[in-house]
Specification:
Layout lengths: L7 H21 L5 H40 L9 H34 L3 H39 L7 H47 L11 H35 L13 H21 L11 H27 L3 E4 L2 E4 H26 L4 H10 L3 H14 L2 H31 L2 H24 L3 H44 L9 H42 L12 H15 L1 H17 L9 H39 L1 E3 L2 E3 L4 H38 L25
Antiparallel strand pairs: 1-2, 3-4
Helix pairs in contact: 1-4, 1-7, 2-3, 2-5, 2-6, 2-13, 2-16, 3-4, 3-5, 3-6, 3-13, 4-5, 4-6, 4-7, 4-13, 5-6, 5-15, 5-16, 5-17, 5-19, 6-7, 6-12, 6-13, 6-14, 6-16, 6-19, 7-8, 7-12, 8-9, 9-12, 9-14, 10-11, 10-18, 10-19, 11-18, 11-19, 12-14, 13-14, 14-18, 14-19, ...
């Protein structure tokens, strides 16, 4: 099995090669007339200006953190100063993943607009291929980086030893730095990009659509370029870094628990449970590539949503079938983790559970956010009586939408655990994340279509072109919400696996909430997602106020804008969003990184009967439960509000009367969408990074606050030997 590890980076390389080919295809497509290319150039220039400013700040953070990790790596036998290099590689690849997505999106947007002048199927082909470039870039870099580093660290620390020995523990401990770097950059990129895009969007909507009565992407609106830039830096670059970090964290969590699996009774060396999640991820890239060929439509009336679903489900089905043969090939018949016995087929069924949970989460999210479904229709109906009832309806839908996902997650955790213990929960998350390349392709095509619609509006193209891009954009809103629900589901399973890994490395054998310090930490943890969301939403509000003032100033002080005789000062609005996002992203990010450290080290030795590791465990439990609920609520409420607004743009019937744009119910829906924007694009999608990042920080500092107590779990069935994990 040792030779199998050398194949893993090749899966990532294949993904990157196909990515390059698809990127070249997109670049060859017609970019439209000179005016369209000029507008696309503004968007690309603004997006790159933001990334450069963000990277400058994050580079200081990365260097300082790496120095701290290098110093701490010398203090512990199971760690190494090399963890700093691992951290930097993870941070760089996370940033690169976001750049790849943004770079192709700023090329694909104008080409999608031009393709929409021909047909809906051509527009879908260009926008979805642009999304595919991002999906394959993110997963290819992750698998190649993680697989390559594992090979290096294996030979540095673990070659020739046992898979459960100190060498392997050290190799995986150092590899955790890669995930820490990826998730750290992901959090700042997601929060910063989210603040940018929503500040511009809210400012453009409030002054442009509501006050001036002009279309959302009207070329006369000074904030429209910043709004379209925001789609790229938030929904594309931020999302790329986000899913890169999530993907890596899921695989790492499974590897950590795989290192604890015992199968020595079969003369088995134990390396395969560690390699299995990486191999599944690699095969998922290949099957996602195959799945892209199913995303096709035949005519103007074909369902774009059904085409995307077919590609998604086919890649999941292929991954599930391949996992059966992979598990039979790689694993022995009998395994155990923390004295919990299970078979190789139990591992396969746990993977299937993960795929089913991911599918159900997507279906449930689609139901709560898609046009024409009861939740969105309920918001539309409430819009007829004003702005307040629209807000009430959206909040109610968001809260209701937590029920089925949580029940699905709870069932998935119980069933996967019953099959293969904690390893089953982790491998279920790996199975769910295996087709991340396809999930990201579906996710990223939405912002590309949104930008395409904006360019069509600003260029004054025929109504049929905007109708096609609006069709894609509406589906993109639903798929974006489904992708965020998918990410939250994976975060819940991954965090439980990381939590279990933290319990192992910190030496605690239980977390007793009857102990007052643990209960207090539980409450503090549950509070963190709320203050994090508050900071993110407030940041959007402050930046949006600056944007509104600037747009109003330009309308007042630059004569001729409304008559198309003068060009707005787009660059000033871009600068407002850039400066605000860089400034405001720091505090939420600091909370996520420093809170576990403060609890872990700040309360070490303070309470005689309660260790700081137990308190940190309570903190993580609170963050995970509260963060998952907050993420689902905010993502779905925002998505439902957005599609309720878009429904009015097509025309809706309320109590026997048709309502369209500029009607009073439409104005109420714009208010709801404005409230929902920071929910679904700033604070909501950051929840999954928040809970995983705090768990990874806890995992990294776990050995430093270890109590030295050995953990023993209750066995699934009586076994002759009790395995005590170090």
């Amino acid at each position: 099995m040792e030779n199998l590890m050398y194949i893993i980076p090749l899966f990532g390389l294949v993904g990157l090669i196909v990515m390059a080919a698809k990127s070249a295809w997109v670049s060859k497509q017609d970019a439209g007339d000179e005016n369209m290319q000029e507008l696309a150039g503004y968007i690309a220039k603004g997006a790159m200006a933001f990334l450069k400013a963000e990277w400058k700040v994050l580079s200081y953070f990365a260097v300082v953190t790496a120095l701290i990790l290098a110093w701490s790596g010398t203090m512990l036998e199971t760690s190494s100063p090399v963890i700093a290099i691992s951290f930097l590689i993870g941070a760089i690849l996370s940033a690169l993943a976001g750049y790849i997505g943004m770079n192709i999106a700023t090329k694909a947007n104008v080409r999608t607009t031009q393709a929409a002048r021909t047909s809906l199927s051509k527009a879908l082909a260009v926008s979805f291929t642009g999304g595919t470039v991002m999906g394959l870039g993110v997963t290819g870099l992750a698998v190649m980086g993680l697989g390559g580093l594992f090979i290096v660290f294996y030979h540095m620390y673990a070659a020739g030893g046992s898979a459960t020995g100190p060498g392997m523990i050290k190799a995986i401990e150092v590899l955790a730095g890669f995930s820490l770097g990826a998730e750290s950059i992901a959090l700042f990129a997601r929060v910063g990009g989210g603040i940018y895009t929503k500040a511009a969007d809210v400012g453009a909507d409030l002054v442009g659509k509501v006050e001036a009565g002009i279309p959302e992407d009207d070329v006369r609106n000074p904030a429209t370029i910043a709004d379209n830039v925001g789609d790229n830096v938030g929904d594309v670059a931020g999302m790329g870094a986000d899913l890169f970090g999530s993907y890596v964290a899921t695989i790492l969590a499974t590897m950590v628990l795989g290192q604890e699996i015992d199968a020595s009774g079969d003369g088995f060396q134990g390396l395969s449970p560690i390699l299995l999640p990486m191999v599944i991820a690699g095969l998922g890239i290949i099957f996602s590539i195959f799945g892209t060929f199913f995303v096709r439509i035949s005519g103007e009336n074909s369902s774009v949503q059904n085409a995307l679903n077919l590609g998604n489900w086919s890649s999941m089905l292929m991954t599930g079938v391949a996992s059966y043969f992979l598990v039979k090939f790689m694993l022995p018949e009998t395994l155990s983790i923390r004295s919990y016995e299970f078979s190789s087929m139990d591992v396969f069924w746990a993977i299937v559970v993960g795929l089913v949970v991911g599918t159900l989460m997507s279906i449930i999210t689609e139901y709560y956010t898609a046009m024409g479904r009861r939740p969105v229709l309920s918001i539309i109906n409430r819009s007829s009586t004003g702005h307040a009832t629209n807000i009430i309806g959206g909040l109610a839908v968001g809260m209701e939408s937590t029920v089925l996902p949580i029940l699905t997650l709870a069932a998935g955790i119980i069933v996967s655990y019953s099959f293969a213990g904690l390893y089953g929960v982790a491998i279920a998350a790996s199975g769910m994340m295996a087709t991340t390349a396809m999930q990201l392709a579906i996710d990223a095509f939405g912002p590309i279509a949104d930008n395409a619609g904006g360019i069509a509006e600003m260029s004054g193209l025929p109504e049929e072109v905007r109708h096609r891009t609006d069709n894609l954009d509406a589906v993109g809103n639903t798929t974006a919400a489904a992708g965020k629900g998918f990410a939250i589901a994976s975060a819940a399973l991954t965090s439980l696996a990381l939590f279990a890994a933290f319990v192992g490395v910190s030496g605690i054998d239980s977390i007793d909430i009857f102990k007052a310090p643990v209960l207090a930490a539980l409450f503090v943890g549950a509070m963190v997602p709320f203050i994090f969301s508050s900071l993110a939403i407030s940041a959007v509000g402050r930046a949006a106020m600056d944007m509104v003032k600037e747009v109003r100033r330009q309308f007042k002080e630059i004569p001729g804008i409304m008559e198309y005789k003068a060009k707005p000062e787009y660059e000033k609005c871009v600068a407002i969003s850039t400066e605000a996002s860089i400034r405001e992203m720091m505090l939420p990010g600091a909370i996520a990184l420093l809170t576990p450290i403060a609890v872990g080290f700040g309360f070490k030795g303070v309470f005689p009967d309660t260790s700081s590791a137990e308190m940190l465990g309570g903190l993580l439990a609170g963050v995970t439960v509260s963060g998952v609920l907050m993420g689902i609520f905010q993502n779905n409420a925002g998505g439902a509000w957005d599609n309720a607004k878009k429904s009015f743009e097509k025309g809706v019937m309320i109590d026997g009367q048709m309502y369209y744009k500029k009607s009073e119910p439409h104005k109420a829906s714009v208010t709801g969408d404005t409230v929902g924007d920071p929910f679904k694009d700033t604070s909501g999608p950051s929840m999954n990074i928040l809970i995983k990042l705090m768990s990874i920080v806890a995992l990294v500092i776990g050995p430093f606050i270890s109590t030295g107590v050995k953990h023993v779990s209750v066995p699934k069935q009586p076994v002759e030997k009790v395995i005590v994990m170090k």
